[in-house]
Known about the structure:
By secondary structure, this protein is an alpha/beta fold. The protein contains nine helices and seven strands, in the order E-H-E-H-E-H-E-H-H-E-H-E-H-E-H-H.
Amino acid sequence: xxRIVVFGATSAIAQxxxxxWAGRGDALFLVGRxxxxxxxxxxxxxxxxxxxxEWLAHDLADLEAHESLVARADATLGGxxxxxxxxxxxxxxxxxREDVPLAVESIHVNFVSAASLLAHLANLLERxxxxxxxxxxxxxxxxxxxxxYVYGAAKAGLTAFASGLRNRLQKSGVSVVTIKPGFxxxxxxxxxxxxxxxxxxxxxxxxxxxxxxxxxDVVYVPGFWRLIMWVVRSIPERxxxxxxx
Length: 245
């Protein structure tokens, strides 16, 4: 049995991961913003076989509460074996480029708040010399594109932050898994036209759980995104800047 804390537990991908863990009989502590949805998710996970399910409603944009949130999850579970940081917002790039305060808020949620949680989790697990921290970044962070550069910039920062933590924590026996999904058919992408590259949340969740189990470093989900983003990164800037991406 693993003791797992999930931040952003009502997101479609996080819920799909939690269902897998519940089916294994793991113990779960869920954190998210919406109490009603958290209660419903917790009830479902108990039915699916989770050995323990606790939840706490809190806005993860509130950085001052992060240390106490991590401590409460740790105390409730009797220790943390796995932590998944899965919260974030996509936003409308056209709106974000005109509304600068909104763009800053988006970066705060997608990068600053996630990095804050990672930092507190890292300090806790480093002292224990055990555990796995997983964070959902995005392929959007691999190269800035005009269609989503606010979101992409936040995810690029998050990817770099996780890379630094992985380098720092490897000698302590703590794994840091960076997850880079491509397009996923979730409520967050409801306004985006769907195409053949879109994956289902349960498909992405299986890959995430497998990566955590195997203590991977960086995983693209689905795997073909690794090749796609290699091509995107390889385009010379003098050409790339003229593309409508």
